[in-house]
Amino acid sequence: MASSNITFHGQPAIELSLPEGDRAIVALHGAQVLSWTPAGGPERLYLSPEALFDGQAAIRGGVPVCWPQFNERGPLPKHGFVRNLAWSPVPEAGDDHTVVLALRDSEATRAMWPHAFNARIEVGLAPQSLTIGLMVENTGREAFAFTMALHTYLRIDDIDAVRLHGLGGLPYWDAVTDTHPAPLPSGAALAIQGQTDRVYEAAPAPLTLADGLGRLSIAQDPVYAQTTVWNPGAELCAKLAQMPADGYRQMLCVEAAVVDTPVRVAPGEVWAGAQKLSVVPA
Ligand SMILES: O=P(O)(O)OC[C@H]1O[C@@H](O)[C@H](O)[C@@H](O)[C@@H]1O
After folding, report:
1. Whose CA is nearest to atom 3 of ligand 1?
2. Which residues are paired to 98 by β-bridges?
3. Which ligand 1 atom is nearest residue 78's CA?
4. Which residues are responsible for catalysis (predicted)?
């Protein structure tokens, strides 16, 4: 097993690799996982071929960390600010199959959000699985509250063929129509038809994504009360930054999220939770 510093698209990154052949790449910018290739299988994360690596913009693809605000639900920049900042490796906290990156509050973050914090992203690679954990410590004297998402872009081979299992019976908010439609029947799989932007109550068991690349289990810790499912569809995709017009056909975001009720963290307290992706054997 090994962890090494590399340059990926001109930006500093860390590569993890296992003797079995599994590989993952994490950029320091945004502490963003940009690639996960389980041994013997295809790339499982979508990274836009038009992604910008300028050390400022949020990179389109992989696993952007959206914190301390989900989407535009508050006064901060969309999806918060940590996806736009360079995080620092914490080598002593990691090992050959785990990368840990940290970000503390700074003058720049306090100008946007007046709180003291120590955030960590822990990326763990194991044979046929990848775990991404966010930990947030309140290092200040006052409580703070946040919403967030691990905005995982899963790579798929064809949007028309993909099915997401495990959301049956769960209430959801449809952000495209701003409605609360009836849940999917229990046991039914979600097929993606056009622009899809939904905030589901978290499922009690892992979801399964199925398409021509195989089956992937998507688990999230119970601290994530919601799971969001996003695909821009053809029309919106054509207008999105850092995205080819047909990019929506190869990606589906399934996000471990806290959207509806902000998490409150008291001084000295730590909040932590992970999303785990695992290849389901054929
Ligand atoms: O383009 P961004 O800022 O990365 O956001 C992408 C999408 O992120 C999703 O989580 C939201 O539900 C969508 O509404 C949003 O458009």
Report:
1. 78
2. 95, 124
3. 3
4. 151, 255
Protein residues with CB under 6 Å of any ligand 1 atom:
58, 71, 78-79, 149, 151, 175, 197, 228, 230, 255
Ligand 1 atom having least distance to the Cα of 197: 12
- Which tokens hold the place of 75? 């006064």
Distance 95 CA to ligand 1 centre (A): 32
71 CA distance to ligand 1 centroid (A)? 6
pLDDT band at residue 96 using 50, 70 and 90 as cut-offs: confident
Task: Name the strand (E) or helix (H) holding 234.
Answer: helix 233-237
Contact 194, 229 (CB under 8 A): no
pTM value surpassing 0.90: yes
Nearest CA to ligand 1 atom 1: 240
ipTM associated with this complex = 0.96
Nearest Cα neighbor of 45 from 147, 198, 150, 136 is 150
Q: Give the pLDDT confidence of 139-173 residue by residue, as tens digits.
A: 999 999 999 999 999 999 999 999 999 999 999 99
Has domain 2-280 been given CATH number 2.70.98.10? yes
User: Tokens 């914190």 belong to which residue?
Assistant: 67
Q: Are 98 and 109 in contact (CB under 8 A)?
A: no
Q: Which of 129, 108, 131, 113 is nearest to 121 (CA)?
A: 131
